[in-house]
Amino acid sequence: xxxxxxxxxxxxxxxxxxxxxxxxxxxxxxxxxxxxxxxxxxxxxxxxxxxxxxxxxxxxxxxxxxxxxxxxxxxxxxxxxxxxxxxxxxxxxxxxxxxxxxxxxxxxxxxxxxxxxxxxxxxxxxxxxxxxxxxxxxxxxxxxxxxxxxxxxxxxxxxxxxxxxxxxxxxxxxxxxxx
Length: 179
Description:
single chain, alpha+beta, disordered N terminus
């Protein structure tokens, strides 16, 4: 049986405010001609301020400036494979799914801290940009092992380092079978 993605994605023609349920995931991707730029330029933009409006506005404006100046662009894809390699190694498939669809249908990881959930909710309310995806997981099996091997044989679309961990993302075309 093939691995099926979540049926909800960001808008087909995304705008800053859109999230309408078409089959696309939109990612911020660095232009290859600008090798000196780093994802950390906007990921850490608000670190100089404590939590609050000033911090969130700076993060949001830094992301918009990166798009406006064409340092980064929006790349539409169907799925994204995401691997983090550091003290611990994780890999999975990322997709967009509305939070309303998660109500009573997802078992939370037992180590999720209530304070982290509250902090992230506050972040979303203020920045109004989804910076961290909802990760949906499934049990390890031969189908996943085969898919992981195919993914890792290709070059990642995005690679960056943060907090002593290497982050790699692969854009997976919608036409590619996840079986």
